Amino acid sequence: MQKGEKILKPKKKIKGGARLPHLKHTAEMESVYLENIDQVIIPMQQHIGAPCNPLVKKGDKVFVGTLIGDCDAKVSAPIHSSVSGEVSQVKTITLSNGNECQAVIINSDGQMTPDPELSAMEVTNAEDLRKAARNCGLVGLGGAGFPTHVKLTLSDDKPIDTLIINGAECEPYITADYRECIESFEDILEGVYLIKNALNVENVIIGVEDNKPKAIKLLYDIASHKNDTENHVRLMKLPSSYPQGAEKVLIYSATGRKLPAGKLPADVGCIVMNITSVAVLKRYIKTGMPLVNKRLTVDGNAVEKPGNYIVPVGTPINKVLEAAGAEDFEKIILGGPMMGQAIYNTEAPITKQNNAILAFKGIKALTKPTTDCIRCGRCMKACPIRLSPRKVETALEFGAGAEELSILNTMHCIECGSCSFSCPAGRQLTASMRLAKNVIRKAGAK
Ligand code: SF4
Ligand code: SF4
After folding, report:
1. What are the tens digits of pLDDT across the range 381-414?
2. Cβ of 392 below 6 Å from ligand 2
3. Residue 440 is inside which H or E element, if any?
4. Residue 391: CB within 6 Å of ligand 2?
5. Which domains does the chain have, with CATH numbers?
6. I need a surface site. Which of 89, 257, 427, 444 has the fewest CB within 10 A?
């Protein structure tokens, strides 16, 4: 096998998208563990799907990794304690997105004692892997939090031939996956082969943007490892253009297949896993410790000590900001500047799917003023899905209903933010797309 044969070029390149400044200031900074968190607030809704029911009550003793919430619904993911200590309350809280849900509040005893019941598990087939992902409480770690075990539920009528490992991390600032790759390389290496063998897939494609030479070198070692006796694992260098890491875009680049709106990757023969998910799942299988910590990139011009912080799930956002020396901030974004969400409630807790906190000051100077549309068409050119966001915005302004909005293919929008970024008139096109999608969802249309 020649070196070149292990590195693939994208099958298809996306049109549109945005050339963004990378701003990966924290890429070469080793992650810092945030210790001495005296209380965690663990929401029972940290995933797409049904919320969990609390399984503990005030006064119960818990360990790190103790199951504290679960639910029988197919689309849901169990929730575990991220500290050892005592449950002080179970109550309704407001999440960073404004939604309310039940949460288990735990006072830490400072010992971080792992649950003695945790144990390694053996995974030899796809069903074992699905169970492991569920027991681990694993969900999509950088996005909406779709439960991983649902993605890994195979069915005969939807054969899977390609596992895509997503190492693109295309949003500015965020380096959490990159640090996972550098700091937990062995877990990723072992995880890739474990998942590949359990799923028995023909092709494994590890996608990484070409602006990460260190990660490329490491991931090349996975693709060329002696474990790959049948030459199934390959590295794909992707152009560093935004939104290369979006699931739809990645599947298209890696396989040339188009994922229809409302469909799962399995509908086009693929499973996509984030690179950190691979490492988390491997660690769970090896140790029995479920998903209880999150690595977050903390950055922005109001942050004195930017870096990647590893924190117990349920840590209040303000504790992380405090540790990173964020002061006088006017805007907080949970996630990246393109797909993240501006938040106001910094007492809300970190959840499993959070991967960054950005804190900014002087935002007036950073924000484009909004003016009338000048019909330049840049928003359409920037859209990787080839939509017309201005048309959707105009339709909303004229009070269009679900049916009219659906005709504009609104539900295909991946909310990547490229249209808003490209608009010289500073129009909030992505917000309009989200609004239009909500109108359609509420009406039950497609
Ligand atoms: S319309 Fe949606 S998919 Fe297209 S650029 Fe805007 S946010 Fe991205
Ligand atoms: S990019 Fe902005 S100004 Fe240009 S057509 Fe789209 S909405 Fe109008």
Report:
1. 999 999 999 999 999 999 999 999 999 999 999 9
2. no
3. helix 429-443
4. no
5. 3-27+120-287 (3.40.50.11540), 32-118+290-363 (3.10.20.600), 378-443 (no CATH)
6. 444
